[in-house]
Amino acid sequence: MRKINVILFFLVLFSWEGRTQNRMADPLDYLKEIKEDLGIKWPHNRTINLVFHGHSVPAGYFKTPIVNTLDSYPYQVLKLLKEQYPFAVINIINTSIGGENSVSGSERFESEVLIHKPDVLFIDYALNDIGVGLEKSYEAWNKMIKKAMNLKIKIILLTPSPDQRVNILEVDNVLEQYKNQIQLLAKENRVGLVDSYTLFKEKVLAGDSIPKFMSQVNHPNAEGHKLIAEEIITYFQ
């Protein structure tokens, strides 16, 4: 009887571990300490550093070569945060480079990203990673995630925003494959996820068209960036 009870105990334990290990961070409490810090008034407050690392979309490119910084999602996030946290000092640090993929981004990660001591790090490279393939993309993202986690940095991964050359309603299209891989990375590492791809797909399923949210073939306009920014803000509410 005792042997059976021991077996049942381990079965329950393994079942619990299976349910909890492959689960991404909960937006409600993932940034709990940072949200508390954002609400502290001077002279006891501190500067909060939000670092956005990626390609042309977080860099703010709209219709190339125009860079519309203040309508890009990092700065829309800043505006929304300041409405919610009027006493906070928040630095938006954008290390994104137009045309770059995650392999190149990972090579300069320590010298140009971690040096800023992020409180929250956002990674958005999926659109350009099509050029390097899923395997190299996974390795580069995972490398950056692990380095940041070793420094206790909170991380939020972003799935791809649209590319109008890819049918967002096509099952298992190339962007969806990257979306799935980024979701997997978020679950494996128990970090945050902003599923930009699904946000835009849901808009199409509701009757909107992708061009409504785009300034050119693969760069969102202000409305497209707003979708992403409002999803990011769910982590700070």
Which descriptors apply to this entry?
237 residues, alpha/beta, Rossmann fold, 5-stranded parallel sheet, two-stranded antiparallel ribbon, 47% helix, disordered N terminus
What does this structure look like?
- By secondary structure, the chain is α/β, with parallel strands linked by helices.
- It has a single domain, classed as 3-Layer(aba) Sandwich (Rossmann fold), CATH 3.40.50.
- Helix content is 47%, strand content 14%.
- The chain has 11 helices and 7 strands.
- The chain has helices at residues 2-21, 32-38, 56-59, 73-84, 102-107, 109-112, 126-129, 134-150, 174-189, 196-205, 222-233; strands spanning 47-54, 89-94, 120-124, 154-158, 192-194, 214-216, 219-220.
- The strands form 2 sheets. Strands 2-1-3-4-5 form a 5-stranded parallel sheet, sandwiched between helices.
- β4, α9 (174-189) and β5 (192-194) form a beta-alpha-beta unit.
- The longest helix is centred in the first third of the chain and has 20 residues, at 2-21.
- The radius of gyration is 19 Å and the shape is globular.
- The model is unreliable at 1-20 (pLDDT under 50).
Short description:
The chain has 237 residues and is α/β, with parallel strands linked by helices. It has helices spanning 2-21, 32-38, 56-59, 73-84, 102-107, 109-112, 126-129, 134-150, 174-189, 196-205, 222-233, and strands spanning 47-54, 89-94, 120-124, 154-158, 192-194, 214-216, 219-220.
